[in-house]
Specification:
Blueprint: E1 2-3, E2 8-12, E3 15-18, H1 19-41, H2 49-72, H3 74-79, H4 94-112, H5 116-140, E4 155-157, E5 164-165, H6 168-189, H7 198-214, H8 232-253
Parallel strand pairs: 1-4
Antiparallel strand pairs: 2-3, 4-5
Helix pairs in contact: 1-2, 1-5, 2-4, 4-5, 5-6, 5-7, 6-7, 7-8
């Protein structure tokens, strides 16, 4: 399959709206709607959701940008620190986005005297869905491409080169979609939300297991080589993966705590 999709959704004069931005906005709005349904289901005050959204989105953007700059292209950005602010040029790391989201929830929960872990458990639902949107946007942009492949579904990203490659972005998008469906089903049909930290632990375990494995068939994204058989994305995934397993096992060993967000 040949792929040469125009990343620009539409232009008005010198202003261009890109598909990436549109899907990013759709991800945020979908996540906000999903959290509103969660709050309504648990009879919580939905008036706080706009503030929660602000904290989380700010944390995602800041964290994703800083981790990309400092871990994937440190030489360039340390030599050109003002370029860190040039978000429109691209460059966001999902590991940093995840850490930023956690910090955003922490500050929101502390300010509003809510349960930090209960919020994190429920935030996993829109976060998994967010991953589907963002990786789909990466596919439309012909970025974060896979390694060369002779498989029948390999794709030639004409904006990159003329080589047939794994559609690694779609692999990740599909993985996150499956994780979202699983978490949503467990949230509605099981008692997992009563075990503080269980949903977050399961999300981190599954998400970063998928990320770790898919990295094997991605083109290197970092501007340097570690020379140890694992790339930067995999090394950044390991702490999240290990912590997720620890958190899930610890959560299910405890007595259930049937408390909602507050």
């Amino acid at each position: 399959m040949q792929w040469n999709f125009d990343p620009v959704l539409f232009s008005i004069g010198s202003l261009s709206i890109h598909w990436y931005g549109a899907l990013f906005a759709a991800a945020v709005l979908s996540g906000a709607h999903l959290m509103k349904r969660v709050f309504i289901k648990e009879k919580q005050d939905t008036s706080q959701l706009d503030n929660l959204l602000t904290y989380v989105v700010a944390g995602v953007v800041i964290g994703a940008r800083l981790v990309h700059c400092l871990f994937y292209e440190p030489d360039y950005y340390l030599s050109n620190p003002l370029e860190i602010l040039a978000l429109w040029k691209g460059g966001l790391a999902s590991h940093g986005g995840g850490l930023g989201a956690i910090l955003g929830v922490f500050f929101f929960a502390k300010k509003n005297k809510m349960s930090f872990m209960s919020l994190l458990d429920r935030i996993t639902l829109p976060t998994a869905l967010f991953g589907v949107f963002v990786r789909s946007a990466n596919f439309l942009n012909s970025e974060i491409v896979g390694a060369e492949s002779e498989l029948p579904w390999a794709i030639v990203f004409e904006r990159v080169d003329n080589l047939a490659r794994h559609p690694a972005q779609l692999y990740e998008a599909l993985a996150y979609l499956c994780i979202f469906i699983l978490l949503l089903s467990l949230y509605h049909k099981s008692k997992i939300k009563e075990y503080s930290g269980a949903m977050l632990g399961l999300f981190l375990s599954l998400c970063f297991s998928a990320r770790f494995l898919i990295e094997f068939i991605k083109e290197p994204q970092a501007s340097y080589s570690l020379g140890i058989g694992l790339n930067t994305g995999q090394l950044l995934s390991l702490p999240f993966l290990i912590f997720g397993i620890f958190l899930f096992v610890k959560a299910i060993k405890k007595e259930p705590n049937n408390k909602p967000v507050k």
